[in-house]
Amino acid sequence: MMRLVIVRHAEALRTCEVRQRPLSPNGIRQARQVGARLRQLGMEVDELWHSAKQRAKETAEIMASKLGQAPEVKQRDDLGPNDPVEPITREILDRDESLMIVSHLPFVRYLTAVLVSLHKQQLPDFSPCCAVVLEREDTIGSWSISEVITPDD
User: Fold this and answer.
1) For the domain with range 2-149, which CATH number is right: 3.40.50.1240, 3.30.365.10, 1.10.150.120, 3.30.56.70?
2) Fewer CB within 10 A of the end CB, N or C, for the chain?
3) With contact defined as beta carbons under 8 Å apart, do 37 and 7 qualify?
4) Interval 68-110: pLDDT, tens
Protein backbone atom coordinates (compact mmCIF):
# COMPACT_ATOMS: atom_id res chain seq x y z
CA MET A 1 0.00 0.00 0.00
CA MET A 2 1.32 3.42 -0.92
CA ARG A 3 0.82 6.35 1.42
CA LEU A 4 0.94 10.03 0.64
CA VAL A 5 0.84 12.60 3.44
CA ILE A 6 -0.16 16.10 2.34
CA VAL A 7 0.58 18.78 4.94
CA ARG A 8 -0.14 22.47 5.09
CA HIS A 9 2.76 24.25 6.80
CA ALA A 10 2.43 25.15 10.48
CA GLU A 11 1.57 28.63 11.74
CA ALA A 12 4.13 31.27 10.75
CA LEU A 13 5.01 34.68 12.11
CA ARG A 14 3.14 37.49 10.40
CA THR A 15 5.74 40.23 10.86
CA CYS A 16 8.29 39.10 8.26
CA GLU A 17 8.64 39.19 4.49
CA VAL A 18 6.13 36.71 3.03
CA ARG A 19 8.60 34.27 1.42
CA GLN A 20 10.86 33.96 4.45
CA ARG A 21 8.37 33.92 7.33
CA PRO A 22 9.62 31.48 9.98
CA LEU A 23 7.33 29.43 12.16
CA SER A 24 5.84 31.04 15.25
CA PRO A 25 6.37 29.35 18.63
CA ASN A 26 2.86 27.93 18.23
CA GLY A 27 3.76 26.69 14.73
CA ILE A 28 6.78 24.85 16.12
CA ARG A 29 4.49 23.21 18.69
CA GLN A 30 2.01 22.28 15.93
CA ALA A 31 4.68 20.63 13.77
CA ARG A 32 6.02 18.66 16.73
CA GLN A 33 2.54 17.47 17.71
CA VAL A 34 1.53 16.36 14.22
CA GLY A 35 4.90 14.71 13.59
CA ALA A 36 4.62 12.81 16.89
CA ARG A 37 1.05 11.75 16.05
CA LEU A 38 2.17 10.44 12.65
CA ARG A 39 4.86 8.43 14.40
CA GLN A 40 2.30 7.01 16.85
CA LEU A 41 0.30 5.84 13.84
CA GLY A 42 3.38 4.05 12.51
CA MET A 43 3.69 6.41 9.55
CA GLU A 44 6.90 6.05 7.59
CA VAL A 45 7.72 7.95 4.41
CA ASP A 46 10.66 7.44 2.08
CA GLU A 47 10.86 11.07 0.96
CA LEU A 48 9.60 14.40 2.23
CA TRP A 49 9.21 17.25 -0.25
CA HIS A 50 8.69 20.87 0.80
CA SER A 51 8.35 24.21 -0.94
CA ALA A 52 11.11 26.82 -1.00
CA LYS A 53 9.35 28.99 1.59
CA GLN A 54 10.90 29.09 5.06
CA ARG A 55 7.72 28.09 6.91
CA ALA A 56 7.31 24.92 4.82
CA LYS A 57 10.99 24.02 5.22
CA GLU A 58 10.85 24.39 9.01
CA THR A 59 7.62 22.39 9.23
CA ALA A 60 9.15 19.62 7.10
CA GLU A 61 12.35 19.46 9.12
CA ILE A 62 10.52 19.29 12.45
CA MET A 63 8.12 16.63 11.23
CA ALA A 64 10.93 14.56 9.69
CA SER A 65 12.74 14.58 13.04
CA LYS A 66 9.65 13.16 14.74
CA LEU A 67 9.15 10.22 12.38
CA GLY A 68 10.69 6.89 13.35
CA GLN A 69 12.58 6.47 10.09
CA ALA A 70 14.11 9.76 8.92
CA PRO A 71 13.02 10.37 5.32
CA GLU A 72 15.12 12.04 2.66
CA VAL A 73 14.10 15.73 2.74
CA LYS A 74 14.07 17.64 -0.55
CA GLN A 75 13.23 21.24 -1.37
CA ARG A 76 11.13 21.63 -4.51
CA ASP A 77 10.53 24.84 -6.44
CA ASP A 78 7.19 23.60 -7.80
CA LEU A 79 5.25 23.37 -4.51
CA GLY A 80 4.38 27.03 -4.04
CA PRO A 81 0.88 28.21 -3.10
CA ASN A 82 -0.22 28.88 -6.67
CA ASP A 83 1.86 26.35 -8.60
CA PRO A 84 -0.03 23.96 -10.87
CA VAL A 85 -0.67 20.55 -9.29
CA GLU A 86 -0.66 18.52 -12.52
CA PRO A 87 3.15 18.01 -12.77
CA ILE A 88 3.35 16.84 -9.13
CA THR A 89 0.29 14.63 -9.62
CA ARG A 90 2.00 12.85 -12.51
CA GLU A 91 5.11 12.25 -10.38
CA ILE A 92 3.00 10.91 -7.52
CA LEU A 93 1.12 8.53 -9.79
CA ASP A 94 4.42 7.10 -11.07
CA ARG A 95 5.74 6.42 -7.55
CA ASP A 96 5.53 3.27 -5.52
CA GLU A 97 7.22 4.69 -2.40
CA SER A 98 5.54 6.63 0.38
CA LEU A 99 5.86 10.40 0.32
CA MET A 100 5.09 13.46 2.44
CA ILE A 101 4.56 16.89 0.87
CA VAL A 102 4.62 20.11 2.93
CA SER A 103 3.20 23.07 1.05
CA HIS A 104 0.60 25.84 1.21
CA LEU A 105 -3.00 26.74 0.50
CA PRO A 106 -4.42 26.52 -2.07
CA PHE A 107 -1.88 24.01 -3.48
CA VAL A 108 -2.49 21.29 -0.84
CA ARG A 109 -6.25 21.51 -1.29
CA TYR A 110 -6.07 21.36 -5.10
CA LEU A 111 -3.63 18.44 -5.01
CA THR A 112 -5.89 16.49 -2.66
CA ALA A 113 -8.93 17.27 -4.82
CA VAL A 114 -7.20 15.94 -7.94
CA LEU A 115 -6.17 12.69 -6.23
CA VAL A 116 -9.39 11.97 -4.32
CA SER A 117 -12.85 11.66 -5.80
CA LEU A 118 -14.77 14.71 -4.61
CA HIS A 119 -18.07 12.89 -5.07
CA LYS A 120 -17.17 10.37 -2.38
CA GLN A 121 -15.34 12.41 0.23
CA GLN A 122 -15.38 15.94 1.51
CA LEU A 123 -11.98 17.61 1.63
CA PRO A 124 -10.60 18.81 4.96
CA ASP A 125 -10.14 22.54 5.48
CA PHE A 126 -6.32 22.30 5.83
CA SER A 127 -5.92 24.46 8.92
CA PRO A 128 -2.26 25.20 9.80
CA CYS A 129 -0.27 21.97 10.10
CA CYS A 130 -3.17 19.77 9.05
CA ALA A 131 -1.87 16.46 7.68
CA VAL A 132 -4.05 14.41 5.36
CA VAL A 133 -3.00 10.80 4.85
CA LEU A 134 -4.00 9.29 1.52
CA GLU A 135 -3.71 5.59 0.71
CA ARG A 136 -3.71 3.65 -2.53
CA GLU A 137 -3.80 -0.14 -2.72
CA ASP A 138 -1.78 -0.49 -5.93
CA THR A 139 -0.30 1.59 -8.73
CA ILE A 140 -3.56 1.77 -10.66
CA GLY A 141 -5.92 2.10 -7.72
CA SER A 142 -7.64 5.26 -6.59
CA TRP A 143 -6.60 7.31 -3.59
CA SER A 144 -8.70 7.61 -0.44
CA ILE A 145 -8.32 9.65 2.73
CA SER A 146 -7.43 7.40 5.65
CA GLU A 147 -6.54 9.99 8.33
CA VAL A 148 -6.83 13.71 8.94
CA ILE A 149 -4.52 14.91 11.70
CA THR A 150 -4.56 18.38 13.20
CA PRO A 151 -2.33 19.74 15.97
CA ASP A 152 -5.07 19.54 18.58
CA ASP A 153 -6.02 15.90 17.94
Assistant:
1) 3.40.50.1240
2) N
3) no
4) 788 999 999 999 999 999 999 999 988 889 999 999 999 999 9
